[in-house]
Amino acid sequence: MRDSGHSGKPTLLNRRYLLDRPSQLSVTIHLLGVLAGVGLLYAVAVYVLLGSELLNGKTAEELRRVLLGVHTAYFVVGGLILALTALLLTHRYAGPAFVMRRAVHAMREQDYSSRLHLRLRDFHKPLAKELALLRDELAAREEKRTGLLRDLESSLDAGDEAAVRAILAELIGAPHE
Questions:
Q1: Cβ(107)–Cβ(138) under 8 Å?
Q2: pLDDT tens digits, residue range 80-129?
Q3: Residue 92: is it exposed, middle or buried by C-beta count within 10 angstroms (0-12/13-18/19+)?
Q4: How far apart are CA 62 and CA 42, in angstroms?
Q5: Number of other CB atoms surrounding residue 123 within 10 Å
């Protein structure tokens, strides 16, 4: 399968993802670490319970209740840890998205002062840097255009037709005579 004929590469090799490889690796390591930590907690809890005097002399029903309690605690604690990890990771993704969304909205309103600095461990930093460069370029263009419009007004008031034509050519982007 090819991508709309723009290149000879297969679509799967030419695809761009929202997350870069280092971000994907970071998320994978975080989740594997959480899984390993919760598994280790479970193993320690089972080892302590099965090796203790707590189980001596217990009936099968009492052993079933103890193991059910251990399993329930494991899933509750594991679920809470996974929920906290998911919350942390979504903040690292969603926070930058909200910052960039606000910045784009501000730029559409010609306000180029919006914040685009992300937190230390946030994702999407390359995108935020590109967006900051775009913001700076747009601000510079707007400043130049405003200056040219002021010059145009002055040239019109002075009746300087050659200056008016030169300023108009620059505003339009065409070379002037």
A1: yes
A2: 988 888 888 888 888 888 888 999 999 999 898 887 888 887 878 888 88
A3: buried
A4: 20
A5: 23
